[in-house]
Design brief:
With about 220 residues, this protein is mainly alpha-helical. It has one domain: CDP-alcohol phosphotransferase transmembrane (TM) domain (Four Helix Bundle (Hemerythrin (Met), subunit A), Up-down Bundle). The chain has 8 helices and no strands.
């Protein structure tokens, strides 16, 4: 759903990409720095209970995911390794966000059930990505699911940031319950997406196997 806004935000941040190119900074470097920033925001501030600060730091760096792609296209340096590098670091950033929330609930958030929910989101998020990557390595497609990666991250970060802001402004920590609610929805979305991808790949695999058997006979 949120992918439709990607071009808008790419245009907004394009001047920064042009500046980085003039400075001789490579797209892969931007990807790396952005991931380090996301990890720092999640793993340094979330475990301390500084949820709003963490979200703001993550947001400041998460747009590198758009800038690096723009820079690669603009400079003509779209490479196979760049695509691999970007996808790999995306997984690290995602794990840091949900891992940071899990650390928050083990620490100041003091709720092991919510920590387990965050860990489940982390794990299933990796499985959804693996399912698609493994399908593509077998010459099949698995780009299906009720929520894209960007949707899951944005909803989680926006909810965390708003709940923490309201709490900091004196609205009460009851607002923080919105975070595990969204985590629950993301866990459900991830689970359904994995099931959908397994079903799609299963259908394709049956067709491929049937075609191979027919050719052998």
């Amino acid at each position: 759903m949120l992918e439709r806004f990607r071009q808008f935000w790419t245009n907004v941040w394009a001047p920064f990409g042009d500046l980085f190119l003039r400075w001789g900074i490579s797209p892969n470097t931007v990807t790396f720095v952005g991931t380090v920033g996301v990890c720092a925001g999640a793993l340094v501030f979330f475990p301390q209970g500084k949820l709003l600060v963490g979200v703001l730091v993550i947001t400041a760096f998460v747009f590198s995911d758009m800038i690096d792609g723009y820079m690669a296209r603009k400079s003509g340096k779209v490479t196979t390794f760049g695509a691999f590098w970007d996808s790999t670091l995306d997984r690290i950033g995602d794990a840091a966000i949900f891992g940071g929330l899990a650390m928050y609930y083990v620490g100041p958030g003091n709720n092991n059930w919510y920590a387990a929910l965050a860990i489940y989101c982390l794990s299933m998020g990796s499985v959804t990505s693996y399912a698609r990557a493994r399908a593509e390595s077998l010459n099949m497609q698995a780009k299906v699911g009720i929520a894209e990666r960007a949707d899951r991250l944005v909803f989680t970060l926006v909810t965390t940031g708003l709940a923490a802001l309201i709490d900091d402004l004196g609205g009460g920590d009851n607002w923080l319950v919105a975070i595990p609610i969204v985590l629950g929805l993301m866990a459900l979305a991830n689970t359904i997406t994995v099931i959908q991808r397994v079903q799609v790949v299963h259908q394709q695999a049956l067709a491929i196997d049937a075609a191979r058997e027919a050719a052998e006979n």
